[in-house]
Structure formats: structure tokens, C-alpha cells
Fold this protein.
Amino acid sequence: MAEERIAPDATTRFTGRAAVYSRYRPSYPRALLDLLSSAAGFASSTRVADMGSGTGILTRLFLENGNTVFAVEPNADMRAAAEESLSSFPGFHSVDGTAEHTSLPASHVELITAGQSFHWFSPSAAKKEFGRISANGTVAVIYNARAKSRSGFMTDYESLIKKYGRNFSPVRTAEEDNLNIFFSSYRLFTIPNPKQLDLYGLTGRLLSASYMPARGEKNHGEMLSSIRDVFERNQVGGKVTMEMTTEIYLGTI
């Protein structure tokens, strides 16, 4: 039987990183909307609950499609950044809540999403809450994942993360076990989503990760020097390519 594992400090870990997260985290491809349409009957009229919505990167994709979106985010800094960025969309609703306690009414949405956030949830508690608020049990767990590549840049970047990262083992740890606890059944879809980054974009992407040293923390300056070295060794025309894939775990609970 799968063992449920829950990451610690899920609601506070990104405090102080909202600005860099919003600016430098990768967006999701528009092809995601087409996939949801063909595989799950998604449409612009679908009401969406975006769990652990952060600064609203995935939320924005749905809002631009005309959807009504309930962006559920427990971290005040991240939620405020989303409200500042997305309040002009008539379908945007900011919700102070967690995946386990959303405060949304029963049977309120037709699609529940989790972009870069499922590893912070308690799968069993989230499953119960999602079952309550969903009209049909459809959930999409979505990740922008770095591709496993032997290219010089990707190898160097992964080595840097392993050297300077701290407290990041819970991220996607035992995710297959948690997915099996959470879903009754699901399918995995993938969409290529590479990103070209200059030095500023690469540095910002690195600093947006909660497990990398922030300003004032141990090894922060050394890490910044190292990322500059990684960039200079691998850049072509002033940019490097972050090889990424958008993974969509689409199923029912």
C-alpha cells in the first residue's frame, strides 16, 4: 500500500519570493488548453479551481481563455502578487485557502488544477476536499519539469542545484505513491516546453526555487557566481536553453 508523504512548511516556504517567482517561473504552453479540451471536455465555460495557485501563472492561462477561476493560495505574499496581476480579469476570484480546506461551495467547479503544487498537499485530505467541491471529479496535476538531458548546460545546472539546494528533497518525492493515493485513475500526457534564457532570466529562475539560498543566506553569493560560470560555459548567442516538458496527470478522484 502506498505511503502518504507530505512536504513540510508548505504554506510559508515561498514567503519573500513572490516577485521573482512571478517574473521568472516558466509559463505553461497554450497547447495545454487543447489537450484538456480533447481529453476532458474542457471549454471556456468550465469553472476552474486552481489549487496552490501562487502568483497566478497557470491561473492566467485559464483567465485569458475566458474561464472563471478560483485561485486558491495560502501564502499571503504569493496571493497578493496574483491579485495585483490578475484583478482586471472578470473571471478571477482570489481565495485564501489550502487544497485541504478551500472554503469553496460543494460541487462548485468542473475542473481542479494544481500547477507545481501537488507535492505540497496531503493527498488523502486534498482528495476528500476536491471530491466535495468538484461537480465531476476531474483533476489535472501539472508540472513544468526539467528534462533529463545530457546536454552540457542541463548537466551543469542540475549539478549546481545539487550542490547549493537545501531542504528540497520533499519536492516530487514519492509522487507516484501520492498520485496513486489521490487518483482513482489517471493518464499522463506530456507537452514540450523549452525556454530560452539570458543570464538574468537564468538567475531569476534559480532564485525562484524555494530550496535555493536567498539573499543573506549561506552560500548565496557563491551560488550566484557559480550560475554565471555555468551560463558563460554554455551560452550561445547570449542564451541557454532550459529543456523542459509540461507533464499533465489527468484523471478522476
About this structure: The domain at 18-154+167-195+244-252 is CATH 3.40.50.150 (Rossmann fold). The CA atoms of residues 6 and 121 lie 6 Å apart.
